[in-house]
Model the fold of this input.
Amino acid sequence: MEHVVKLEAFDFKLARICQEGLLEFEVRLRAAIAHTLASKNVAAHASKEFLDAQSCDKAAGEHTKFDAWTKTWREAVTSGAEDEDFIKHHLLKYPEQDVPICAVTEVLSFGNLPFLYDLMQTPDARSVARMFGFAHPSRFGAVLRMMVDFRNTCAHGSRLFNRAFKRPLSLREHDTASELLAHLLEPGFTVTPKAHQRLYIYAAVLAFMLRSHTSGTNWHLTFKTQIRKLDIKLQAPDGSELISPDVSMGFPARWSDLDLWKPKP
Done:
């Protein structure tokens, strides 16, 4: 029972730390999308002229993806107007104009940001991806959906220890602009089963994106400190450890020595 209580306390603190990193990422992502689209038109989100027409015209049930997106952002604005003065002000003073993208991204849920990102024109999507160290929009779009799953798991108090997330991520060479994630390309980088669905790869990609952004971060150091606090001695009959980052959470051996987890020069 003592092991269970200790592990639960560790996991609770770990989830809070992960939430802090995800919030950093979310704020930066909102700003990146808003800035990129606003440079084309203040209401670029509301017109297919400034989005990718082919993506917008794809079917989404009985409607198109653009129709579904329009419904999503308009509902977010309506809901936001109940509490946010900047939304109320715009609707009252400019009732015939669409709410600008900088305001829309403030009231959209984190879960809806990948929806908008997928509708952006390729050069714009690539520009946003590069702000976070990714070279290709499609790979970054997949990462965004992973981060939404990661955030929901942490926010709802679900367990991180020994969790296999539903979305696996397998990086390819040249997906990113540096070598900080190169170890994830190595076969068998961890002994944990379902390695591409474990906490480590999710946290490693989050750390990489925060480090790649011009604002910088120290989040990776806080995360590293918390993982090192997992010190529960429980062994199998053969003497192997039952509870450790490399056994249960997808961490590589000697992961803390990798450049990804060191202070940024």
